[in-house]
Amino acid sequence: xxxxxxxxxxxxxxxxxxxxxxxxxxxxxxxxxxxxxxxxxxxxxxxxxxxxxxxxxxxxxxxxxxxxxxxxxxxxxxxxxxxxxxxxxxxxxxxxxxxxxxxxxxxxxxxxxxxxxxxxxxxxxxxxxxxxxxxxxxxxxxxxxxxxxxxxxxxxxxxxxxxxxxxxxxxxxxxxxxxxxxxxxxxxxxxxxxxxxx
Length: 198
Ligand code: GRF
Prior knowledge:
By secondary structure, this protein is of the alpha/beta class. The chain has two domains: 1-97, Rossmann fold (3-Layer(aba) Sandwich); 103-198, Formyl transferase, N-terminal domain (Rossmann fold, 3-Layer(aba) Sandwich), CATH 3.40.50.170. Helix content is 36%, strand content 21%. Helix 1 (8-19) packs across helix 6 (159-182). The chain is globular. The site of 5-O-phosphono-beta-D-ribofuranosylamine (GRF) has 12 residues, from helix 1, strand 5 and helix 6. 5-O-phosphono-beta-D-ribofuranosylamine binds at residues 5-9, 83-84, 104-106, 167, 170.
């Protein structure tokens, strides 16, 4: 799993695994691009290897991506889960892990891609925003959509209150999607993701 921040989505996946002996994905490695990311502590508390590939130490995006992919390979990672990872990987990541990188985004893509999705949705005045889980392709916040759920925007919402409700959905939806991806239940056909409803 790749993180940059507090790692609440990482925690939701760790909890899903801890609470369900049949949860099909085994987290093996957490990588952060920042030494201080709170999610690193969550990983070590759960007995999972935690590593830092410091973005600010990397000469360019290519070497940063290669260092992360080498770590993922060394841990025999089969599914790469981006959980609040705020860096854009180079194309090498998609080449080395085709249809095996998933991301969660706090808006209904293709609306409001990018790092300020909640703020931009609120500023735009949308009545409904939501959560998108998608495969990662060579463009930012663009790959085939695995699942989406709407969240109603309230008149009194601030970025914080809206993001909190979005995260409640994220913490339920992401473990479900990760489990489906890990068991090969998701088939990508063009832009569509077909769920095998086993
Ligand atoms: C989430 O809202 C996710 O949608 C976005 O970044 C946030 C990460 O939160 N990509 P956390 O670090 O999992 O708490």
